[in-house]
Batch of 2 targets.
Target 1
Amino acid sequence: MRDVIIACDFKNKEDLYEFLKPFDGLNPYLKVGMEIFYKEGPQLVKDLHAKGFKIFLDLKCHDIPNTVESAMRNLGELGVEITNVHAAGGIKMMEAARRGLDATESGKKTKLIAVTQLTSISQETLENELLIKENLADVVKQYALNAKAAGLDGVVCSALEAPIIKELGLLSVTPGIRFADNSVDDQKRVATPALAKELGSTYIVVGRSITKAEDPVAAYKRCVKEFC
Ligand code: C5P
C-alpha cells in the first residue's frame, strides 16, 4: 500500500509531459494540484488516467457543505484514486463531500482525505495569526478525529504526525518531504522519506525534491528505495 506520490506542481500540461518523459514505464503516482488543474481542467486528469497514472487530485475544497457536496459530485465523475478537503470546514462539510462523491459509481471508489494543518504552518503561525492556542499536534489530532467521525479515509499531515494518525486507524498522506541534503524551502514540518516510513506514513507526497532535482528519475527512485 505504501507509495511515493509526485507533486506535479507545473504551470501547464506541456511542462508536465516534458517532466514525465524519462519516467516512461515507471508510472509513478501523481498529485495533480490547483496550479495545473486550474489551467488544464478535468481533461488533464482524464488523459493521465488513460495513460495509466494513478491520481491524487489535491484541490483542498473548503466551502459551505452544500457547495462542497456539489463540487465533489462533479469530481466524482473523474474517478480519481484520492481527493481532499480542508478539515477546517468541519464535520458537516466533510460528510457532505463524501455524499457528493458517493453520488456516482466512479466517485464511490475515490478515497477522501482531509488536510489537517498545512505543512507550511508552524506553531507560531497557528498561535499568532490563526489565534489557535493549542499545540499543533493536538490540533492535527482533533481535525483527524473529526475526519474519522465524518467517515473519511485519512488525512494529509506532516510525517511527524503520522504516528497519531496510524493510532486512529486512518491513512496518512504526508507532504513536506526532503532528503537530508535538500533545502526545506517554505515547508516547516519536514521529514526524510526514511523517517516518514519509520513514523508510519501511508503515502509520501514529494514535490521539489524530485521535480527540481538534477535527475528527477534518480530522486524518485531514491524516495521509493527509502520509503517503500
Ligand atoms: O515541493 P514540495 O515537496 O514542498 O511540495 C509539497 C506539495 O504538497 C505541494 O504540492 C503542496 O501543495 C502539497 N501540500 C503540502 N502541505 C499540505 C498539503 C499539501 O505541502 N498540508
Target 2
Amino acid sequence: MKNKIYIETYGCQMNFADSEIVSSILNKAGYTNSRTPDDADYILINTCAIRDNAEQRIRKRLRELKALQRQRPTLKIGILGCMAERLQKQLMEEEDNVSFIVGPDAYRNLPSMLSHIAQGERLAETMLSETETYDDIEPVRYDSNGITAYISIMRGCQNYCAYCVVPYTRGRERSRDPQTIVNEARKLVENGYREVTLLGQNVNSYHWESAKRNAESEELDSHTPSLISVGFPELLDMVASIDPRLRVRFATSHPKDLSDNLLHVMAKHDNICKCIHLPVQSGSARMLKLMNRHYSPEWYLDRIDAIRRILPSCSITTDVIAGFCSETEEDHQATLEMFRRVRYDYAYMFKFSMRPNTYAAKHLQDDIPDDVKTRRLEEIINLQGQIALENNQKEIGKTYEVLVEGVSHRSDQQLFGRNSQNKVIVFDRGDIQPGQYVHVRVTRCTAATLIGTVTTKQ
Ligand code: SAH
Ligand code: SF4
Ligand code: F3S
C-alpha cells in the first residue's frame, strides 16, 4: 500500500500545530509519516499566504518538487493551509503537478481525498467552518523535541485588519472547549513535556460558552459556573494550575483585548512565562486607524505601562509593518518613536505587501515605492537591533531559570534553553540533559542570544 506522507510546513505557529492535527487524522487512517520527501508517496505542503513573498517561496518549492515527480511519477503532491484556501481552484489550474488542495477547516476530509487521489483524481476541499476546532483530535507531535509543544485554543480571526489576509483564509473566530485544552496539556505533562504555548491569532479574545447552557441551565448549580463561560484569563489560570513544572506561554495577544485581569493571572503563577507578544503594527495614530486596529498609540502605551507595573520582569515583543498605504515620513517617525519608547526585546519586522481581497486592496493604494519601504524597514531593523543589544547587555550578571531545550546550533558542546522571558541562553553542556531546569548566570550577550554559566541544576 502506498501510505507514506511527508508534511512540509510554512507560516505561523498555528500552521505547525495544524500539521500535527493533519498527521493525527492521517495516522489514524493508516498513513505513516516519512522524515524526508524522498521516500514519501504523498507530499503535503502546509502553506502561508500572509505576504506575497511567502507565496512565491511555495511556488518555487513546487517547481523543485516537479523534479522529484519526474523520477517517481506516482508521487502525489497536495497543498494545505492558507494559500490553498486563498487560491483554491486557481492553484489547481496553474500547478499541474498538484493533486489536492485542502483548506484549514477541511482536514478531516483528507483520508477520503487521498484514497480518491490514489486512483488518479484531482480534488479541492476549501469550505470554511464556523464550528470546526478539531478539539477531539489529539495532535501527533511528529517533529517534536519532547519538551515544548503548541496547543491551538482557537481558530480563525474576524478583526479584519485592513492589510491582512487571515480572516479570509481561516474564517470566523471560534474557541475550543476548555476541558479538551486542559486534557491535552495534562497528557503532555504525563508524557514528559515541560512547556506548552497556547495558540490563536488573537488568544486574549478567547471566549467559550457551553453549548449546553440553555438545555441544562436548571440543573447547573453553583459548583459548575466556571465551565459555563470561560475567557482567556480563566483558561490560562486552569492550564497553569495543572502542574507548577509546566511552563505556559501564549501567542498572539491583540492590544485591544489586553486586560489587567490577564496580567494579574500571569503575576499569580510563576510558571506562566513573563513574555508578551503585542503586535503594534505602527506607531502612528492615523495608520492604526487606517489599518483598522481598534487602538490608538496612547491606548497601546497605556497597556505597556500596565505590563511594566503589574509584571516588572516581563519581556515585550512585537510585529510591525513598514510602508503601509499612504504612510508618510511623519508616520514612519512615529513608529520609530514607539520603538524607542517601548524598547522591545524582539520584533518581527515586515515590509507591507498588498494582499488581494483585503480592505486595503479594495479601498487603498499601495503607493509607497519599494525603495522607500525598504529604507524605512531598514531603519526600524537597525534601531531595534541596537535596542535588543542594549536590553541584553542589562541582563549580564543576572541569573535565570532556564528550561533546557537542546544542543546549541553552534557547538555540540553547548546546550540552549530559554528563560521565562523567552530569551535564548547558551551554556556549556556538562552532564545536563534537555528537559531539565537549570539556573544560568548571564556572562555575555549578542543582540539575539545570552551566554552564561550554569549555577545550579534541578
Ligand atoms: N494575529 C496576529 C498576527 C498575524 S500575522 C496579530 O493580529 O497581531 C503576523 C504578522 O504579519 C502581523 O502581525 C503583521 O505584522 C504581519 N502582516 C500581516 N499582513 C501583512 C501584510 N499584508 N504585509 C506585511 N505584513 C503583514
Ligand atoms: Fe490579521 Fe488582524 Fe486578525 Fe491579526 S488580528 S490575524 S493581523 S486580521
Ligand atoms: Fe500565514 Fe495563515 Fe499563519 S496566512 S501567518 S499560515 S494564519
